[in-house]
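Work through this protein:
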Amino acid sequence: MNEQDPSPTDAPAAPEAEHPPGGAARPKGTNPVLIVVGVVAAVMVALVVLLATSGGDDEAPDTAAEVLDDAAPPLVGETISGESFALSDLEGDWVVVNFFATWCPPCVAEHPELAAFEASNEFDAKVVSVAFDEPAEKVAAFFAEHGGDWPVVAQSDQIPLEWSVLGLPESFLVSPEGEVVEKYEGQVTAAGLEEDIRAHS
């Protein structure tokens, strides 16, 4: 019995093209790592855009907003001597509002300048300090040792937020009309404060 030539239907089937399970064949040269990175980057960009443009009536207020060239925020509290204080009571006077702490070396270094300014400035400007998160007794002892005779408000958590305080020391020059005309990040000097008052008068 002669062997017959294999018919076309008897020919071995061609191997199927390899492709990832559950997907179409991937074009040659495509790097799956780059695809994943691209997708992740696109998602991150979308999230950034969403956060930047989101807003609404129930959005939290921007407590870090600058107070410069605006009405001075409220400053109401009890001083370390137990007396009530309100910045509004000093309307009509130039006022230096100083945020400090006794454990802050630059604050300690600037203290004599504030004392000199408060004692003898030509504008009869006032000074008020806000003690940053310290017991009143410790602050009172600091003033007894280093001098200074002006109101020192025991800090509440809200005061630094309302005044946009980010570091110590920080001071603000408030005009007789109640507007913040200068903000000082770091130490102040008596001469510098007088010069700024003169410039804004």
The beta strands are 76-78, 84-86, 95-100, 126-131, 152-154, 170-174, 180-185. The longest helix spans residues 32-53.
